[in-house]
Structures are given as C-alpha cells and as structure tokens.
C-alpha cells in the first residue's frame, strides 16, 4: 500500500493497481464484513535519486616529515528525492492522495583538517597531533511548498535550512519576587501570570504582543540525537629508552541535550526527587505560605502536576549545547632491553597498563549524564571505563 507519509518508505508493490485487503470491519445490512480499500494512484514515474559529490583536499608536509597534515572540503547534493506536489489537490472523497515524485533535494557539506608534529630530542621521541571536522546536512528544496502566512513559513518551512534545528523559548532570567510577577507586563502563562511563582522563568516576547505562546519560539539549538556536528581529536606519544606513553582524546560540539523528564520534572514516574532539585526556589518554612522565598537555581517544584507548569516549556534554560573532550585511550608501557631478553631467551617482552574512557571534560557534569547522550531523560547508560594491565611476550 502507498504510504501517505513522505518520510516513510514506499511499498515495493506500489506500482501495481488493485486493492488493499483486511482494512478493518464494517456493518453492511446488519452483517459484519471485512473491508478493502483502493490502493490509490499507482506509482510508475519515479526513479533513483541523483547524487553529485565534490571533494577538494590537500596533503602537505614541512621540514621533511616533522610536520604533516591534510585539509579537505566536501559537498554532496542529492536531487530527485521523493516528495509530494502539494499544489496538486484531490478531493477527500477520492479516498487516497497523490503519490510521491522525484521533487525534493538535500545536501551534506563540511570540512576536515589534521595536523601532526613528529620530533626527537636525544633519546626522547614524540608526536603531537590533532584533527577537527565539521559536517551538517541541509534540506535544499521541495516542490512549491505552501504556507498559510509568513509566521507559518518561518516556523515550519525547511526550504534551504539546516536539518535538526531545535526550537524553543529564550529564557531571560527568573522572577525574583511576587511583586515582580504582579507588575510584569507580558502574559507569560496565558492566565495573567496568576500561576507563576518566584523563581519561574521569564521568556522573551519575540513578536512584542505581550503574550508568550508558540509564536515566540525560535531556533535555540542543534540536533539532540547525540551526534555532534563538530568532531575533534588530540593524540600524544612520547617514548624514552623503552618507556612509551600514548594518549588519545576525542571530543564533540555543536549538538544539544534537552534536559527533560526525570531531569526536569519532580518525582517523574513516581520516582525519587532528583538531587539537582535540592538547589531550587523554596519557602523558608514549607508549612508557612507566608514565609520568605529562598532563591535557588531551579524554579519552585510542583508535585504531580504532570509537567504542565509554565517553566516546563522547551527553552534555553533547559537546552544545553554540549561540548566535551574524552580520554579515549591512555597507555603507559615498558619494553625490556635486548640485553636482558637475551638472557631469558625472549625476542620481546612488554609490560603495559592502559585505560579506556577514563574521564571526560564536559559541561554536563552537574547532571550526572554522559556527554555523548541521546536520551533527554538522562537515563541512558554511560560508557564503561576499562583499566587493563598486561604483558606481551614473544619467544
């Protein structure tokens, strides 16, 4: 059956006319029957998409092989991707919509660079290197997209835009008192601010209509699938009289983590209170509603409100544009000298200790989550750390 969702793959039999059976039950003249449905317009005019790739690069070296490196730029344009001609309409009574055609296009572009220095000083040899890459996809065009107005185009168009844009509100700060809430001219909660408490978030009124709603959302971040748009790495190697030290670091940036669910709502799924919420706005005496407010990082919590409090909107307060540098591999080793190996009749003997994923430098430490995270609830299992001790022998 042809799938009306252009993001879903087509049926391998979409080119054949006919009916789809077992589409549900109906009552005809008091008798239940199993229904069928016309498959719709057959698809016999699509072809493979076309891909054009441009790659320009250079490798270089200076001072012999002491300094080596490379740079590359790439651009891939795909045309003829499946999409819909939305300016062609059919009546709903027909029972099906028109099929996809080869009308969409997208691109992937980026660059990468690497540089290394190889040096030697007496018995010490060393190598220092680094690399960085950037890659991002963009939806180029579709067939005559239709928008209701300029706001609809701004919010929902993908024409000529990068993919995986995260939309939300810009948080300007937090209310410091009930008086500030009462005198604030912008209607933030849609109810005259009567549901707000000191510590709640102040959102920027993007269109200046003194009301905060979806018309005030804007791009505030990048992809939240844990895949950075920028990747980089550092590596070091030092050797001296049989002792070697190696360290490899990798990092990422230009991607986002949306702090949500257990990381945003108190007692989510009837669980315990996340310890990060100990630093929150709260009454000095929880049993006295007239006691003073004690400031904190997070807004005052509402128990079991289903996450409907105004501060729960996706905003720059909850979205974190992640940056990290992780120690992938660190190893220290020692190779026994040949004079000693000859006495024990060995060709080679090396003792080593190494570790993997030992630590990371990132901006998500306070939340207790791994920086290479895709789950917004923060419950994703972190990467394992390993420490190995061993010896390699060759007879």
Write up what this structure looks like.
It is a single chain. This protein is mainly beta and about 400 residues long. The chain folds into two domains: about 1-45, no CATH class; about 50-395, no CATH class. The protein is about 5% helix and about 45% strand. It is built from three helices and 19 strands. It has helices spanning about 150-155, 180-185, 340-345, and strands spanning about 20-30, 30-40, 50-60, 65-85, 100-120, 125-140, 160, 165-170, 170-175, 200-205, 220, 230-240, 245-260, 280-285, 295, 320-335, 350-355, 360, 385-395. The strands form five sheets. Strands 3, 4, 5, 6, 7, 12, 13, 16, 17, 18 and 19 form an eleven-stranded antiparallel β-sheet that branches. It has a two-stranded antiparallel sheet with strand order 1-2. A hairpin with a 2-residue loop joins strand 5 (about 100-120) and strand 6. It is extended, with a radius of gyration of 30 Å.
* Total of DSSP H or I helical runs spanning 4+ residues: 3
Number of strands: 19
Main pleated sheet: 11 strands, antiparallel
Mean pLDDT: 90
| End-to-end separation | 66 Å
Kindly name the structural category.
mainly beta
Low-confidence stretches: 1-7
Shape verdict: extended
Element string (H = helix, E = strand): EEEEEEHEEEHEEEEEEEHEEE
Strand residue content: 35-45%
Please estimate the helix content: under 10%
A few lines on this structure:
With 395 residues, the chain is mainly β. It contains 3 helices and 19 strands.
Compile the SSE list and pairings.
Layout: E1 19-28, E2 31-38, E3 50-62, E4 67-83, E5 101-121, E6 124-141, H1 150-156, E7 161-162, E8 166-168, E9 171-174, H2 178-183, E10 201-203, E11 218-221, E12 230-240, E13 243-258, E14 282-283, E15 293-294, E16 319-335, H3 338-343, E17 348-356, E18 360-362, E19 386-394
Antiparallel strand pairs: 1-2, 3-4, 4-5, 5-6, 6-7, 6-12, 8-11, 9-10, 12-13, 13-16, 14-15, 16-17, 16-18, 17-19
């Amino acid at each position: 059956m042809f799938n009306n969702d252009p993001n879903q793959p087509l049926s391998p039999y979409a080119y054949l006319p006919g009916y789809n059976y077992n589409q549900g039950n109906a009552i005809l003249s008091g008798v239940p029957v199993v229904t069928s449905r016309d498959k719709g317009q057959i698809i016999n005019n699509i072809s493979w998409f076309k891909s054009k790739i441009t790659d320009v690069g250079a490798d270089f070296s200076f001072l012999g092989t002491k300094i080596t490196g490379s740079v590359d730029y790439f651009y891939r344009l795909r045309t003829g991707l499946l999409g819909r001609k939305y300016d062609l309409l059919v009546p709903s009574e027909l029972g099906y919509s028109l099929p996809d055609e080869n009308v969409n296009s997208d691109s992937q572009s980026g660059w990468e660079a690497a540089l290394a220095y190889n040096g030697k000083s007496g018995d010490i040899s060393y190598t220092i290197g680094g690399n960085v890459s950037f890659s991002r996809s963009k939806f180029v065009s579709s067939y005559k997209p239709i928008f209701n107005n300029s706001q609809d185009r701004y919010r929902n168009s993908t024409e000529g835009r990068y993919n995986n844009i995260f939309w939300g509100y810009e948080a300007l700060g937090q209310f410091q008192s009930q008086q500030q809430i009462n005198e604030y001219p912008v209607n933030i909660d849609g109810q005259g601010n009567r549901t707000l408490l000191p510590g709640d978030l102040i959102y920027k009124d993007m269109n200046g209509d003194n009301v905060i709603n979806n018309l005030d959302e804007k791009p505030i971040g990048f992809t939240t699938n844990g895949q950075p748009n920028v990747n980089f790495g550092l590596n070091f190697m030092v050797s001296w009289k049989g002792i070697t030290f190696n360290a490899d670091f990798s990092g990422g940036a230009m991607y986002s983590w949306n702090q949500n669910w257990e990381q945003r709502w108190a007692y989510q799924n009837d669980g315990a209170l996340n310890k990060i919420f100990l630093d929150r706005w709260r009454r000095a005496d929880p049993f006295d509603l007239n006691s003073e407010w004690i400031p904190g990082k997070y807004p005052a919590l509402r128990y079991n409100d289903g996450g409907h409090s105004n501060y729960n909107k996706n905003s720059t307060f909850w979205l974190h544009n992640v940056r990290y540098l992780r120690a992938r591999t660190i190893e220290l080793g020692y190779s026994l000298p040949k004079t000693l190996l000859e006495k024990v009749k060995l060709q080679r003997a090396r003792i080593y200790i190494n570790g993997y994923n030992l630590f990371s430098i990132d901006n998500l430490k306070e939340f207790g989550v791994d920086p290479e995270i895709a789950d917004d609830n923060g419950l994703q299992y972190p990467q394992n750390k390993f420490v190995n001790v061993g010896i390699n022998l060759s007879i």
